[in-house]
Design goal:
Strand order of the largest sheet: 3-1-2-9
Strand content: 15-25%
Shape: globular
Order of helices and strands: HHHEEHEEHEEHEEHEE
Number of strands: 10
Number of helices: 7
Oligomer: single chain
Helix content: 40-55%
Length: 241
């Protein structure tokens, strides 16, 4: 009986993982569509925004076929979905500063949904600028260490490419760039063959807010609700979790 239970649990976990992956790919597809239309070209060598989104897709293990289909569809469908990028700012549960980035074809719907999640979680949606000053936009690359990596050589490579900071620890290396040099630094890292775990342009908090265990649970519930919304692409916050 325990064996049946074990495999049932594994099957449920796999289904949950597959569902979450499908949701991530759907959101990345929207980002690709916006990048093609805003950047004016389906060629990542010309369209820097598209190049950055493709890097994010690859870091999330989105198959190349999916990426190419989304790009071709966006390039060939001038009358398709008219997505817009919108940013919301406010305070989540326990006074945590939050920036929400959304991609939507209906601003009224998305604004209402985001406001509802804030209020239901004990937070409040603010105006633009209400928490933005607490964050700085940075390119971010996370590399998994292995024996093939020469840290000194990698550090010199990324600094020469325009990186601002190189932060190694026991298992990973974090690289920070300006948004303008992110693509160049990412190209340099990819050429080294290093394993990239995460890569995107994100909002990084200048100061972290410490939470109790109970507060952290409330914050995680808030993030889960945001993650379940199809229009929400990214949620940045200053909670130390």
């Amino acid at each position: 009986m325990s064996g049946h239970s074990k495999w049932a649990n594994i099957k449920r976990k796999k289904e949950a993982t597959d569902t979450k992956r499908a949701g991530i790919f759907s959101k990345l597809g929207k980002e690709l569509t916006v990048a093609v239309k805003m950047g004016g070209s389906p060629d990542p060598n010309v369209n820097r925004k598209l190049k950055d989104v493709i890097a994010k897709c690859k870091a999330n293990n989105m198959p190349n076929d999916n990426i190419n289909r989304c790009i071709q569809k966006a390039a060939g469908d001038a009358n398709g979905d008219n997505y817009e990028e919108i940013t919301y700012e406010g305070f989540g549960p326990c006074g945590v500063a939050v920036i929400v980035e959304a991609t939507t074809d209906n601003k009224n719907r998305t604004a209402a949904d985001v406001r509802h999640i804030f209020s239901k979680s004990g937070g409040s949606l603010g105006v633009n600028g209400s928490v933005g000053y607490m964050f700085e936009k940075k390119g971010y690359i996370l590399i998994e260490k292995d024996e093939s990596i020469d840290e000194d050589e990698l550090m010199m490579t990324v600094l020469d490419a325009g990186a601002e900071d190189f932060v190694p620890d026991e298992e990973y290396i974090e690289i920070f760039t300006s948004p303008d040099t992110f693509s160049d630094v990412l190209d340099a890292v990819e050429k080294t063959g290093a394993k990239i775990v995460e890569s995107d342009v994100r909002q990084i908090a200048n100061m972290k807010k410490e939470l109790t265990e109970e507060e952290e649970e409330k914050m995680q519930n808030f993030l889960d609700r945001m993650d379940e919304n199809d229009d929400v692409q990214n949620v940045w916050h200053n909670a130390d979790m």
